[in-house]
Task: inverse folding
């Protein structure tokens, strides 16, 4: 019993981190048709930047801000000077983001060396939350809270704000949105920066749980891809449910069949692609 | 579509002659081994080019077939008691079956979706090789003396092994060039250019792409078997995204949709990697920089790029070149 | 009574809630020349795409030569003897005209799945393609790439590719659009040479040519069939006037 509850909460916490990463990835993909293969690298770089900020004496909370901000500036530069030049060439854009991912990954090894580095947990969230015999780290509960708050905020932003209405129109039909006078040249950088910021801040937030290490990027990126394949393109709800599903599968899989945790990841992909290639909540096939 | 032009055939023959003469030109085993690496990489790159160049299907998971076939070859022959021939055949057969499954999954989507699924599937395989340590040796990899002794020839000799690999490259060049001109190959190129029209003409586009995917997977498996023989060792790195990306780089650098461009691309990447790795450890960064540079500044790749240059020099009307990145997304209207 | 070449019943197709084709039922007997008329956006091309199998209908049923093809893919329908041309030209632009026709011929052959045999060596295939090009008067351009031909030549190639498959049911989507008077006359003559047993359904705006060509005319508006009948009836019908004059 304890096992299932604890692993369930672990799955929820991992799924939460995944959602923070995948929601931005999915939004960027849905709106801009850019498969941002740098997204995992943004996540890792954000974590390293946050770590250095903490080493420099800044508090954990400010480090999250710095991580998010740094990556969003990086994202803005990449969007403005590289991706926009390749607009209309989706494949060239993907390959450029892949190249950038490699550059970032190697730069991280260069700067922060190859050793795994744990990000120190904020003191106020250390310790465990106890109910009867169950103990669960408070920090993970906090991460779950952050993800749910983020999901609600993003939902509100997309469904209730003017900006959100424009984004939704763009995801549904970009050329129609343009024809109706929505200035995608303004919308694109906003969404790309938002997605980048989420990845960067998410990396710092994940630091105390996952640590930061070379390869964190290529560990996380495919999971984000799987989440989007499961959930459907540009669907916030899809990213949310997909993240939780993968979080649970990963967590229970690691605990029950540590050898086969990755094999089990095939199952939801096979099922969804066979039965519903649009993803669970997508409207168009990916 | 493509017609193998005379200069291309000449280029191909020159390449083969150069490769055949290689062991006489260089005496050091080091260089013979690099030539062998090029041969193996060329088979892999040519097989990926069937998808990317002729099918317009950009896969970022082609290391899957290299890696799985390599793991299976080492595992079956060195750890499961298979004979060399039986082990190799079983490894290639099993990898081809895997390509059938992956092709089925990846072709549920097209364009970017296809790319995402191949990448995800490939990385899951990497994760399995990395984590399932009891079977794969995990990060330490899996080793074993697996080089066979066909007809009493000792393939431990680098030169002998080079020729052994070269036989497979020649077979690949022959069969893949036939494939490109065959009914299926031409159908594949038609499906790349006008999928909707092809359906209206009676072509089952899905089946054509799937068959081609399996064909490409089969040659990927051949490369994997040779890789296992060459290294007598295989690690998760073989399955990693960076390997898939390097292979894609060979295809793009050599020029997609050209028959022998990937061989040139393979030579460039392998040589560059060996040279760079001898001096610095920043291969990954260089790989990234090359990717960005090629995509931004020479999207037609090197081989078609030089062909175009030659065309300008001769002041001929430039024939329409195949762009290196042929995929646009097909969307229902 | 013989089986009709095409029979659609209660066909609907919605695009995001908007009906492009709405409750269309139509019966085209074998050998008939049918003309589809209607203003832009009346749903004619959508109807063609539904019949050809580009996308499934939201509701309704499609039968070709009596066989229910509603759930069949476009390529399966082609193998039942259907061919079509496109309003917007979709040819293999980098290839020769001859190669385009060969691709059309190969669509019906098992050769299309053969990974070994070089199609350049299939002499009969190329001869047949050349003969088809001669039929539409393009033989002299057989080895030219499509990109280097004129618009009118591309239109003729479209028709050649459809004819190459020797269809029993031919869908022509505005075969005369954008052509000069001379070219129109050529195409018109070409259409008259098509064997009588081939069923033809044509969308066309050029009334003179189209009316002379058609046995039966179907007028569509806002996704629905408004008038259907022979030439004199349709021209005389006040509803036709309404569709075109808006009163």
Result:
């Amino acid at each position: 019993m304890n096992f299932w509850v604890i692993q369930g909460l672990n799955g929820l916490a991992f799924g939460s981190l995944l959602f923070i990463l995948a929601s931005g990835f999915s939004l960027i993909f849905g709106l801009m048709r850019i498969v941002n293969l740098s997204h995992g690298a943004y996540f890792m770089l954000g974590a390293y930047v946050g770590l250095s900020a903490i080493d420099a004496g800044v508090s954990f909370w400010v480090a999250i801000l710095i991580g998010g901000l740094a990556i969003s500036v990086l994202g803005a530069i990449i969007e403005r000077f590289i991706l926009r030049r390749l607009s209309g060439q989706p494949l060239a854009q993907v390959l450029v983001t892949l190249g950038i991912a490699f550059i970032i990954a190697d730069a991280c090894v260069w700067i922060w060396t190859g050793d795994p580095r744990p990000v120190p947990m904020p003191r106020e969230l250390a310790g465990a939350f106890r109910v009867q015999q169950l103990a669960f780290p408070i920090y993970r509960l906090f991460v779950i809270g952050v993800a749910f708050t983020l999901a609600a905020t993003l939902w509100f932003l997309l469904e209730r704000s003017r900006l959100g209405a424009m984004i939704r129109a763009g995801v549904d039909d970009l050329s129609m949105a343009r024809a109706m006078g929505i200035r995608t040249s303004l919308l694109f950088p906003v969404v790309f920066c938002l997605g980048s910021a989420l990845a960067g801040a998410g990396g710092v937030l994940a630091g105390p749980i996952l640590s930061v290490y070379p390869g964190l990027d290529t560990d996380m990126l495919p999971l984000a891809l799987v989440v989007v394949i499961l959930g459907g393109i540009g669907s916030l709800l899809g990213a949310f449910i997909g993240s939780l599903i993968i979080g649970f599968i990963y967590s229970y899989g690691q605990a029950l069949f540590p050898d086969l945790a990755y094999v089990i990841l095939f199952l939801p992909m096979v099922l969804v692609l066979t039965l519903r290639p649009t993803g669970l909540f997508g409207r168009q096939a990916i | 579509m493509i017609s193998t032009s005379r200069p291309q055939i000449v280029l191909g023959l020159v390449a083969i002659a150069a490769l055949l003469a290689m062991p006489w030109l260089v005496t050091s085993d080091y260089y013979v081994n690099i030539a062998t690496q090029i041969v193996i990489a060329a088979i892999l790159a040519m097989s990926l080019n069937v998808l990317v160049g002729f099918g317009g299907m950009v896969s970022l998971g082609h290391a899957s077939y290299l890696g799985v076939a390599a793991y299976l070859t080492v595992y079956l022959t060195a750890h499961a008691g298979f004979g060399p021939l039986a082990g190799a055949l079983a490894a290639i057969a099993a990898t081809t079956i895997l390509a059938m499954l992956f092709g089925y999954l990846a072709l549920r989507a097209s364009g970017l979706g296809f790319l995402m699924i191949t990448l995800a599937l490939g990385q899951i395989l990497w994760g399995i090789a990395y984590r399932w340590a009891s079977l794969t040796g995990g990060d330490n990899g899996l080793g074993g003396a697996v080089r066979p002794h066909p007809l009493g020839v000792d393939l431990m000799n680098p030169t002998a092994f080079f020729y052994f690999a070269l036989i497979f490259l020649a077979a690949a060049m022959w069969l893949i060039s036939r494939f490109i001109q065959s009914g299926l190959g031409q159908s594949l190129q038609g499906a790349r250019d006008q999928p909707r029209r092809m359906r209206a003409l009676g072509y089952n586009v899905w089946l054509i792409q799937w068959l081609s995917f399996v064909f490409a997977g089969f040659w990927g498996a051949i490369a994997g078997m040779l890789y296992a023989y060459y290294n007598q060792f295989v690690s998760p790195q073989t399955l990693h995204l960076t390997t898939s990306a390097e292979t894609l780089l060979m295809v793009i650098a050599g020029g997609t949709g050209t028959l022998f461009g990937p061989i040139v691309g393979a030579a460039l990447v392998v040589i560059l990697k060996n040279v760079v790795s001898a001096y610095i450890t920043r291969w990954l960064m260089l790989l990234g920089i090359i990717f960005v540079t090629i995509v931004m500044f020479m999207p037609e790749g090197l081989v078609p790029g030089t062909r175009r240059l030659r065309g300008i020099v001769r002041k001929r009307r430039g024939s329409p070149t195949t762009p290196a990145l042929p995929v646009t997304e097909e969307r229902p209207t | 009574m013989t089986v009709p070449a095409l029979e659609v019943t209660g066909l609907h197709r919605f695009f995001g809630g908007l009906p492009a084709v709405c409750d269309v039922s139509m019966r085209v007997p074998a050998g008939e020349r049918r003309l589809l008329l209607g203003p832009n956006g009346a749903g004619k091309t959508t109807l063609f795409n539904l019949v050809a199998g580009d996308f499934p209908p939201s509701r309704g049923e499609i039968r070709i030569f009596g066989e229910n093809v509603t759930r069949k893919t476009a390529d399966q329908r082609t193998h039942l003897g259907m061919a079509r041309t496109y309003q917007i030209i979709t040819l293999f632009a980098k290839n020769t005209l001859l190669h385009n026709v060969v691709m059309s011929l190969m669509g019906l052959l098992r050769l299309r799945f053969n990974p070994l045999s070089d199609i350049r060596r299939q002499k009969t295939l190329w001869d047949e393609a050349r003969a088809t090009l001669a039929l539409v008067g393009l033989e002299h351009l057989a080895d030219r790439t499509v990109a280097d031909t004129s618009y009118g030549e591309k239109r003729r190639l479209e028709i050649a590719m459809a004819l190459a498959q020797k269809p029993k049911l031919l869908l022509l989507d505005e075969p005369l659009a954008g052509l000069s008077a001379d070219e129109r006359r050529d195409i018109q003559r070409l259409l008259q040479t098509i064997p009588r047993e081939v069923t033809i359904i044509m969308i066309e705006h050029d009334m003179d040519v189209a009316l002379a060509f058609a046995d039966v005319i179907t007028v569509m508006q806002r996704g629905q069939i408004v008038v259907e009948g022979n030439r004199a009836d349709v021209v005389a019908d006040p509803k036709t006037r309404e569709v075109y004059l808006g009163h």
Q: What stands out?
A: Chain C touches chain B through 39 residues (CB under 8 Å).
